[in-house]
Write a structure and sequence with these properties.
The chain has seven helices and 14 strands. By secondary structure, the chain is an alpha+beta fold.
Length: 255
């Protein structure tokens, strides 16, 4: 089943790369919450093809039709283009993300970076991989960490808190980066390309596929205050290793 999902996601990547000048850009909730016709085209393709793999599975995704919450049984959690603004601007840092849950527990994660053609994937209990090679999180503390963060672009009321927290983290870490794709940020932590990632509010489809990859790579993720995550809730998110997460909680709680 994992191989079937991988092949479907690769074909979705071909749709992403076929995009021309006319992206069909529309606003959703605000002028910074954008969607293109390719978001919908890729999600429709994924819905159709993934249902052939598991006909009884429910579909939980960002765009268009499908469930608006996670269900029991099999459920695909899909973000057709995580990093739509990057896609629109040609920034070349976006992801196609598919997670599969069974009875609300993640069992498969596949995340494709279609610009770099990097494929991250994992199956529960079988390790995590990037282009066929095993990956693992780093063991860096904050002092030696490259930190990634999200700016909660749809909730500007969290901007001050986000940037204050990031300033405090910045003074303790090597550097900070803002990439614009939560799925890729989490996969970068899983692969040891960076060491810690956080965002004060995030949707389940942004992190579901990548989080199984993170877990299988030895990573830990929680809400920013240390509470458990829920696939059915809009929530905060932080991931890393045991060392730097402990230090992050101390910084966050001192705010």
């Amino acid at each position: 089943m994992l191989n079937q999902i991988i092949e479907i996601v690769k074909k979705a990547g071909e749709i992403y790369r076929s995009a021309g000048d006319d992206l069909g850009i529309c606003e959703k909730s605000s002028s910074v919450d954008l969607v293109t016709k390719y978001d919908k085209k890729i999600q429709d393709f994924l819905y159709t093809e993934l249902k052939k793999v598991l006909p009884d599975a429910q579909l939980f995704g960002e765009e268009g039709d499908g469930n608006k919450e996670l269900t029991d049984g099999y459920c695909f959690i899909i973000d057709p283009i995580d990093g739509t603004t990057n896609f629109i601007k040609g920034f070349q840092h976006s992801a196609i993300s598919v997670g599969l849950a069974k009875d609300k527990e993640l069992i498969i994660g596949v995340v494709l970076d279609p610009d770099l053609n990097n494929l991250y994937y994992a199956e529960k209990g079988k390790g995590a991989f990037l282009n066929g090679k095993p990956i693992h999180v780093s063991d860096c503390n904050i002092e030696k960490s490259l930190v990634l963060f999200g700016t909660c672009p749809y909730e500007h009321e969290l901007a001050h808190k986000t940037f204050k927290l990031t300033e405090d983290v910045f003074y303790k870490a090597i550097e900070v980066r803002r990439g614009g794709s939560a799925a890729l940020d989490i996969c970068y932590i899983a692969a040891g390309k960076a060491d810690l990632y956080y965002e004060l509010i995030i949707r389940p489809w942004d992190w579901a596929g990548a989080t199984l990859i993170l877990h299988e790579a030895g990573g830990i993720c929680t809400q920013v205050n240390g509470d458990e995550l829920s696939l059915n809730k809009i929530t905060s998110y932080v991931c890393g290793n045991e060392k730097n997460l402990k230090e992050f909680y101390e910084i966050y709680n001192a705010q």
